[in-house]
Amino acid sequence: MCTLEKRGDLFFLTLTGDDEHRFHPNTIASILSLLEQAKSQSTRGSVLITTGHGKFFSNGFDLAWALSDGSKTVAANRLDQMVVSFKPVVAAILDLPMPTIAALNGHAAAAGLMLALSHDYVFMRKDRGVLYMSEVNIGLSMPDYFAAMVRAKIGTSTARRELLLSGKKIRGEEAVALGIVDSAAYDSEGGVVEASVRLGEKLAAKKWSGEVYASIRKSLYPELCEILGLEARIFAQPKL
User: I want to staple 4 with a disulfide (CB 3.0 to 4.6 A). Which of 34, 93, 179, 203 is the partner?
Assistant: First the structure.
């Protein structure tokens, strides 16, 4: 499922379990619970790093579970259940009172990529792993908060077209060129996590107010936060 570990100022949220780390309702509930735990334990200087094990960061929703009943109606209801229940996960990450880093150990597809983009920074490997939005290929429409996430986090129409309308699998160097991820200069699962830890430690040393940080973050993405039901509260904590 997933685990949360605290090492000093750094929280490590790790996707575990089956190799593809697909989001079943139980998995989604587990992630949300651990994010709430990290928020409740946060202090000045806290940072969240999210990663996974193996070939996949996450391959998105558990479509096999959605289709396992054999009924189209049940499948549609289960898919809608996952879309609805995953929305608070995205909101929780954007509302966390700390910087957040996604360390992509491997493939990040569909909802798995949305999980990654919810973070402030995204690092991926250059030797293995792709970004892939499969909806156009498998005949699924785009949830409103997925589309808002892409508009908020990916700056050019060309990059958004390549990600959403081409059905292509985007590797590290192209993802950096398109402005989807921050870096893809790492040759192993350990390397991408180590790079995330280095950044995390630099950010932790700032000892910023988490409430102020979260408020500024939410103010950057008004459309997305409105869809997610988040408000950017105003704080005045000047350091004179």
Answer: 34
